[in-house]
Design brief:
This is Oxidoreductase. Pfam families: GFO_IDH_MocA (PF01408), GFO_IDH_MocA_C3 (PF22725). This protein has 319 residues and is an alpha/beta fold. The protein has two domains: 2-112, NAD(P)-binding Rossmann-like Domain (Rossmann fold, 3-Layer(aba) Sandwich), CATH 3.40.50.720; 121-276 and 311-317, Dihydrodipicolinate Reductase, domain 2 (2-Layer Sandwich). Helix content is 33%, strand content 29%. The strands form two sheets. Strands 7-8-9-6-10-11-12-14-13 form a nine-stranded mixed sheet. Strands 2-1-3-4-5 form a five-stranded parallel sheet, sandwiched between helices. A hairpin with a 5-residue loop joins strand 13 and strand 14. Helix 7 packs across helix 9. The longest helix has 16 residues, at 156-171. It is globular, with a radius of gyration of 22 Å. It starts with a strand and ends with a helix.
């Protein structure tokens, strides 16, 4: 079992602590939180060992799980990597692309693995249809959330939209050619609502909308490709797959047939992928353990986390 420690015992940090403590792939050694009152409360309530310093925790483990505010990601990760420790780091990977590139170089120099916490990659609705997504040419994503003070220290693009940026980059195998975006600050000092249009060199276009001041939660992405429409509801963990194929010469009475102006007939049919319930955070943590133990590539690499951040910063810079 890999010895693991958690940096940060806030809302998400406590979730990570609980799951790592349950996992059969990790041995949870303890955690560090800079707020002494919070550290004492977590230690007393859950029994996890609280370390006095970041250095003490890093020295005691094989893997460092970084669940601190984004501004401190780089310093925590740099210290861990230079000690030869593998790192799991929450999204966004760092504050700047320059910092992220430094972590990539350091990880290679010190021969350690890193994974970024883009948890929607492990959402069962997405994993159920990912193999069906082939060369999408138009993508529409809506990620709306009710207001929560957590996360408002960064623009909504880094808080919410970056989830969809990462998902889109994972299925569109092409470079970004152009971005146009707009953002509006309503409650926070940084934009709370944002829309971005991402154009890729292969002709694909993605339209993303994110809001953290909505009246209801929504996390839906729709993929349009040749002969198929695929919808993923990340919030409800549901999918909708509609495909077309050449119509049979003698269709049944209940077959859905469309005919275009050229007389070509297509049959519409529905697929119902099995969406298996899971704990996405536990899955991302345990697949990272597998990557370390088997010396394989993590599912969400530091390079991929950096590319998601780079595109997010391009969007922010276009406001």
């Amino acid at each position: 079992m890999l010895k693991v420690g958690v940096l940060g015992a806030g809302h998400l940090g406590k979730i990570h602590l609980k799951l790592l403590n349950q996992s059969h792939k990790y041995n949870l050694i303890g955690f560090y939180d800079p707020i002494k009152e919070n550290a004492e409360k977590v230690e007393k309530e859950f029994g996890y060992k609280s370390f006095e310093t970041v250095k003490q925790l890093i020295d005691a483990v094989d893997v460092v799980d970084i669940v601190t505010p984004t501004l401190s990601h780089f310093d925590c990760a740099k210290e861990a990597i230079e000690k030869g420790k593998h790192i799991f780091i929450e999204k966004p990977i760092t504050k700047t692309v320059e910092e992220a590139n430094t972590l990539i170089k350091l990880s290679k120099l010190n021969n350690v693995k890193g994974q970024v916490g883009h948890v929607e990659r492990f959402n069962p609705a997405f994993t159920a249809v990912k193999k069906s997504i082939h060369k999408p040419m138009f993508i529409e994503a809506h990620r709306l959330a009710e207001f929560n003070p957590r996360g408002t220290d960064v623009p909504v693009v880094l808080d919410l939209m970056i989830h969809d940026i990462d998902i889109i980059l994972s299925v569109v195998k092409s470079e970004v050619s152009h971005i146009s975006a707009s953002g509006v600050s309503v409650i926070s000092d940084t934009p709370d609502i944002a829309n971005a249009r991402i154009e890729f060199k292969n002709g694909c276009v993605a339209n993303l909308t994110a809001s953290r001041i909505s009246l209801k939660n929504m996390r839906k992405t729709r993929f349009f490709q040749r002969d198929a429409y695929i919808a993923v509801d990340f919030f409800e963990k549901a999918t909708e797959v509609v495909k077309m194929k050449d119509a049979p010469k003698t269709p049944d009475d209940f077959d859905m047939i469309l005919q275009n102006a050229e007389g070509i007939k297509k049959q519409i049919y529905f697929e119902n992928p099995v969406v298996e319930a899971n704990n996405a955070i536990l899955d991302e943590l345990e697949t990272f353990a597998n990557a370390i133990n088997n010396n394989t590539t993590p599912i969400v690499t530091l390079e991929q986390g950096t590319e998601a951040l780079r595109v997010a910063q391009m969007i922010i810079n276009d406001f």
